């Protein structure tokens, strides 16, 4: 990687190069934020057309020529009890379990060939499926610094300390 160029910038450049080579009808796209696991664990069937309240399905993503997306691991402290991202304030174990369930969802989609998790630069050239760069909104699922190694090994590449309602790490 060139000096002064971030991993993200290199990812975008590699994706643009890949896009120009792979689509005669025009460039492909990067989607900067998809709550795929949250929606999937909440019952969304991505093989069906999206509901009126949503825009994402496997067919719609393919038709849109999205080759790379930033897939979230989203957790919400004190969120609605029926939401698969919710955990009670201060409950580290539940926050971890909620985050790991979403990671397992991405891994199952990868196993099914729907996506491939971008763990290395070379994964941008992989197929089948859309390349997913994993990002975590709210770091509460990471139990401690030693636990971070597991998340990185699974493919997590970006972490936000909190979301709108704070976390044990930030406000």
Overview of the structural elements:
This protein has helices spanning 7-22, 36-41, 58-63, 92-111, 145-154; strands spanning 29-34, 66-74, 76-77, 86-87, 115-117, 130-137, 156-160. It has 171 residues and is of the alpha/beta class. The strands form two sheets. Strands 1, 2, 5, 6 and 7 form a five-stranded parallel sheet that branches. It has a two-stranded parallel ribbon with strand order 3-4. Helix 5 (145-154) links the parallel strand 6 (130-137) and strand 7 (156-160). The longest helix is centred in the middle third of the chain and has 20 residues, at 92-111. 28% of the residues are buried.
List keywords for this structure.
171 residues, alpha/beta, five-stranded parallel β-sheet, two-stranded parallel ribbon, 34% helix
Helix and strand element order: HEHHEEEHEEHE
- How many β-strands, per DSSP? 7
Alpha carbon gyration radius: 16 Å
Spatial separation of the terminal alpha carbons: 35 Å
Oligomer: single chain
Share of β-strand residues: 15-25%
Helix amount: 25-40%
Specify the biggest β-sheet. Answer: 5 strands, parallel
Q: Quickly count the helices.
A: 5
Mean pLDDT: 86
Structural class: alpha/beta
The unreliable regions are none
Shape: globular
């Amino acid at each position: 990687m060139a000096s002064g160029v971030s991993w993200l910038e290199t990812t975008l450049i590699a994706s643009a190069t890949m896009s120009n080579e792979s689509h005669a009808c025009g460039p492909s796209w990067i989607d900067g934020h998809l709550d795929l696991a949250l929606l999937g664990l909440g019952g969304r069937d991505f093989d069906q057309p999206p509901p009126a309240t949503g825009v994402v399905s496997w067919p719609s993503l393919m038709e849109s020529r999205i080759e790379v997306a930033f897939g979230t691991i989203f957790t919400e402290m004190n969120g609605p009890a029926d939401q698969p991202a919710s955990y009670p304030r201060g409950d580290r174990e539940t926050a971890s379990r909620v985050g790991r369930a979403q990671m397992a969802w991405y891994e199952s989609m990868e196993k099914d060939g729907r996506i491939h998790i971008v763990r290395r630069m070379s994964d941008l050239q992989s197929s089948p499926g859309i390349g997913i760069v994993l990002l975590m909104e709210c770091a509460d699922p990471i139990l401690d610094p030693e636990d971070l190694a597991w998340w990185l090994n699974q493919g997590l590449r970006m972490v936000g300390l909190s979301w709108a309602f704070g976390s044990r790490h930030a406000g």
